[in-house]
Amino acid sequence: MPGLSNRLKKMPGAKKSFPDFFHVAGNGQCSIQALRNPSFVTGNIVSEPKYNHPLDERINVLGVGISPINLDSAEAGVYAGIDDGCQGYIGVSGVHGVSEAQSNPDFKRILNRTFLNTPDGMPMVWYGKLNGNREISRVYGPDLMLRICAGSPDRGIRHFFFGGCDGVAEMLRDKLTERFPGLEVVGTYTPPFRPLNEEEEIEVRDLINSSGAHCVWVGLSTPKQELFMSGFLKKYGVEHGGDGSLEGAKIFFGVGAAFDFHAGLIPQAPAWMQRCGLEWFYRLYKEPRRLWRRYLKNNPVFIIRAILQFSGLRKYRLIK
Are the C-beta atoms of residues 279 and 112 closer than 8 Å to each other? Predict the structure, then answer.
């Protein structure tokens, strides 16, 4: 659909030199154009769009495809997908998600089938820049949430919050509607600490449908939130082999700790630490008991694997 490319180029703040990235196929399915290099993004564009686009468009980070985007182009892609009635899910991936995928091929496939898989951590950005993608920058889940919420009142975009402990989704709703006058948060749901049963899934589907939400923000942890989004759309979505009972444009976002950050329950790392890739250290300092294993194990192993990939001593295949 050529109109979508034109809309993206006209988005305020969108960089003209950024790849002509998002497309929607003529059947209404979401899609993204492909770049050629099977290992890393190079900037050569393939013209034929496909839904769940060929992975060689993405940056290959240990076999996980990271979308070569920045916050402006991510925002533009979300709005364009909603305008065109898309259903899909967005992952925000850093070292933790990529590391989890190394021992779980099914989870790796889930990340590689996202509508977007944003460079949530600075190592993902460094991967992109080292391989020639100059305009890639961090698309941090909490920042993406604020950006989309800020632009929603003028666009009539409605939101649903799924996740968090008891009362967190409601607290988040109150904080964000105060921050962004006119923001429509049309539903919340606090799931149990286990997978939903079928009756609960149907309840959530009906709540989302009746709310008229376009954006469903999922505040669980990785990989729980990605497993939920993928499974829910596969069962009830229109474009993922589901029964089609999920109605209208629906973009799911797995944003993890963004619920607690924006509800004011957990402080975020200072901006300078985020820019330097040291947010993990700040979070480890704040929550050592919960996060020590994640960071003190995953980070060194990730560095070793990255060196092996860059040196060519080990190949990581993008699987779909």
Answer: no
Q: How far apart are CA 61 and CA 223, in angstroms?
A: 17
H or E element: which one contains 82?
A: helix 71-83
- Alpha-carbon distances of 119 from 61, 127, 239, rounded to whole Å: 10, 10, 24
Whole-angstrom distance, CA of residue 214 vs CA of residue 250: 5
3-state secondary structure of 128: helix
- DSSP lists the bridge partners of residue 118 as 92
Residues 79 and 151 sit within 8 Å (Cβ to Cβ): yes
- The model's pTM is 0.82
Give 8-29 pLDDT, tens digit per residue: 433 333 333 344 444 433 333 4
> CB–CB of 198/235 below 8 Å?
no
* Whether the Cβ atoms of residue 144 and residue 77 lie closer than 8 Å to each other: no
The string of pLDDT tens digits covering residues 223-249 is 999 999 999 999 999 876 789 999 999
CA atoms within 13 A on the CB side of 51: 16
Interatomic CA distance for residues 13 and 147, integer angstroms:
12
